[in-house]
Amino acid sequence: MIGGILFGATNALGFPFVFQVLFFGYAMLGAVVFIILDLPPLKPISGGKAAGALVVFYAILSVAYIAGGAVWPQFDPEDEKGKIDKILKPKREHYEAGKVEVLLQRAKALDEKAKELTARLQALGAAQAPADQKAGGEAAPTATTAAAGGDIAKLGEEQWQLQECYNCHKLNGEGGKKRGPELDNIGNLLSAEEIAIKILDPKSYKAEGFEKEYEKGKMPDKYKDLMEPKDVQALAGWLASYKNASVNTPKPIKMK
């Protein structure tokens, strides 16, 4: 009766079937214990018979426990990891999509500010040039120019070194260019916003002559996780300032 009640209760509460069976089994085990307690006393035994009976009793208990343990659900770390990944994957993808979108928006804003600053600096330079030319000299950079250029150069170069971009790209005559294009003229081919997009999504642009490297995914898709938005903006803005037309930087082809 108790076994039936436990089986029905666990079934109504939505327990897995194996647990329902186990609850029923425990009720049956309790019934067996009470039946044994109610049996008439056994005749006392000693010597070899007592030792043999003890071994047999131990063997029966061992078989019962092993059989019960085999029925009980086993913990599998890989199975649990798969369940966790299944739950977290949609949330992670949603978070990453939002993070990339925010980074792209900030990179776009940075590109607009850079263009505005460049226009102002050009206007200031044009106004300063006649006076300097009359004095027979060249226009000296203003404090605003030095401050803005210094900040971008410092932060951008720090990220260039930190992320080890020089392992695949050549810049200022240094670094490698077997796995990635030379970048001394990238500013004439891509804006800061477009460079930021390429950093965050390597499949967004493909360089001419590097088709095999593009297909093999030589540029890793990891910087969206490794870099903060300000780091991406600094590196993209710094690279966008490189406009050396004498260097044959491959033409970027938009893929997305």
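Next protein, fold it too.
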Amino acid sequence: MRLGSLRLRLLLAGAVSTAIALALAAYGLTVLFERHVERRIDAELTVYLNQLTAHLEPAPEGGIRLQTSPADPRFDVPLSGLYWQIVHEESGTVLRSRSLWDSELALPAEPNVDDQIHHHHIVGPAKAQLYLLQRRIELPPRMGGGTARIAVAWDAAEISNAVREFAVDLTPLLAIIGALLLAATWIWVTIGLKPLAAVRTQLAAIRSGKSKRLGSSFPDEVRPLAHEIDDLIDARDAELARAKSRAGDLAHGLRTPLQVLQTEIERLAKGGQTDVALNLSTVTRTMQRTVERELARARLAAPNRSAETSVATAIEQVIRVVQRTPDGERLDWIVDVPAGLSAPIDRDDLSEAMGNLIENAARHARHAITITARRDGACITLSVTDDGQGIPEGHLAEALRRGGRLDERGSGAGLGLAIVTDIVDSWGGTLTLRNANPGLTATLSFETAPRRS
């Protein structure tokens, strides 16, 4: 996919969004897990703190002592990470767990005696960070009165290690979720862009003649675009129809004056004014070439790809016209065209193409012209054969060139076969010439394709 691809842009946007969402999810989950661990530790340390408070008693020698130490064996293991400490503020007596060994916790001062649990972070043995719960209480008179601070601490590294292990365990799960989200993004993008692919397919069908309009079978977001394109096609078709109409008017308006001028040229030539006739003939031929070229361009600007034309009807109309000419009257016509055969080409274009071929054949034939049409699978061929002299093999390509003339005696502009080539090319067909010995065979070939119902 190229950088300008909409699919690539959507996938990159989805990938970036997924990465950001997973990063935020990972951060949020680790924070929530850390708070959960702290709450569990708070609950456990609160139990120990309540046990220490409940087991305080007056010491015989004065001050206070602990009747029973909490049962957790970690309080008896040196530097185990779990510690307790009690400070009698009036006497300065300090009671502490064996796990502190020869260390003493620097308990934060508590300004109020509120019997509430306060959370702190302090530095403990071996400079370890400790998570501390502390309560400042007022002792009853039976214990000598005064105040005491009771604290229980937990090595904060255990919390950090638990959070880190949770993050390590969470990473593969997030990676799997990320992969699934990327796959889902690919599916969403593919489904979301499918209407655009349908538009492209439909436009290709319009170009090939299998369809005329995009239609309205698209989602709501794409339907306005389809309507705009259909309106544009309608406007273009209307403009082309007007252009073809103007081209037809121009043809009718110029052909008669050119024919009159050609008659006058022939009259001048017969009267001995050959130089004038030659000059006028050159000018007339140039005018004919220009007019026919522009008319052909206007007609072939955008053919209707869905057109179908009866071959027999088109050929019959052309033959009737040519038979009225001097060349057509003297010839025998052999026509072998199936009645139900149709070709994928506009009727006027087929008549124009076959008219040029038949007129050329009538001009060069000696006695007869044979016209045949056949369907061979998906291919339709139309052939026009005369019994004239044919064309030297080395000049067949020259005969198809626009303006190419192998016989300078005629009055044509030398565009007939070239115009036929333009017509059949615009409809996806081909024109081929071959010598028939005697004569020449011109063949039009068209490939047919299944039409949409």
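About the second fold: Residues 307-453 form a domain with the Heat Shock Protein 90 fold (CATH 3.30.565.10).
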